[in-house]
Amino acid sequence: MAVIPFYGADDPELFAIERTAMDRRGRVVAWLDAVLPSGMVLDVGAGDGFTACRLTDRRRTVVALEPAAGMVRPDRPLPWVRGDAESLPFADDSFDGAYATWAYFFPGFIDVGPGLAEVRRVVRPGGAIVVVDNLGDDEFTALADRPIAADVDFWAGEGFEVVRIDTTFEFESLADAQRLLGHFFGERGVSGAGLVVGYRVGAFIGRA
């Protein structure tokens, strides 16, 4: 099972800071809510179900697929499935659409080909497939000492269009900002922390 190392299961308090601050105004969720179909939708790498829970009102079902046992929140009213993107435990054409938010689909970090083929297999022809990632050229990604933005050319080559969503990290305290950004970026994150940090998101949308 392919699991990208992720701190959320080991440090839920820090993950809660991230989930509260990241896109606090909900612009990414609002965009997803507008473009995803109303039937059966798959969240690939659902984490603790934060996004999936916010997309259920207008959908028949949002299935939360998560490989890491420590991230699963059974108290959240979602159909949880343990599994990974490279071998989805679903039949062909099971879903009307699928999405992933900052999960698995990182060209250059791993080979996303197998996972992308699996998503295309389980989504019905014509169904929306959305991958959300860092777009770059913003205050947040500038704190990194290496490129951490999505490969726009890769997604264009796979037939995806990119939609830019301008948002922010908005922290409740400078201590929270320093803790999270220090975790991500070390001393550069601590020294560059602020209550509001500009952030550009790329929503890559394609069709099965």
Description:
- By secondary structure, the protein is an alpha/beta fold.
- The protein has a single domain, classed as Rossmann fold (3-Layer(aba) Sandwich), CATH 3.40.50.
- The protein is globular, with a radius of gyration of 16 Å.
- It starts with 11 loop residues before the first helix and ends with a strand.
- The model has no long low-confidence stretch (mean pLDDT 93).
Mean pLDDT: 93
User: What is the straight-line distance between the termini?
Assistant: 24 Å
How many strands? 7
The stretches of 5 or more residues where confidence is low (pLDDT under 50) are none
SS-based class: alpha/beta
CATH topology: Rossmann fold
Taking all Cα atoms into account, the compactness measure Rg is: 16 Å
What percentage of the residues does DSSP assign to strands (E)? Answer: 25-35%
Can you tell me the CATH class? Alpha Beta
Number of H- or I-type helical stretches: 8
Q: Major β-sheet, in short?
A: 7 strands, mixed
Fraction of residues in helices?
A: 25-40%
What is the gist of this entry?
Helices cover 29% and strands 26% of the residues. The protein has helices at 12-21, 27-35, 50-53, 113-122, 139-142, 152-157, 174-185, 187-191; strands at residues 40-44, 61-66, 80-82, 95-101, 123-134, 161-170, 196-207. It has a seven-stranded mixed β-sheet with strand order 3-2-1-4-5-7-6.
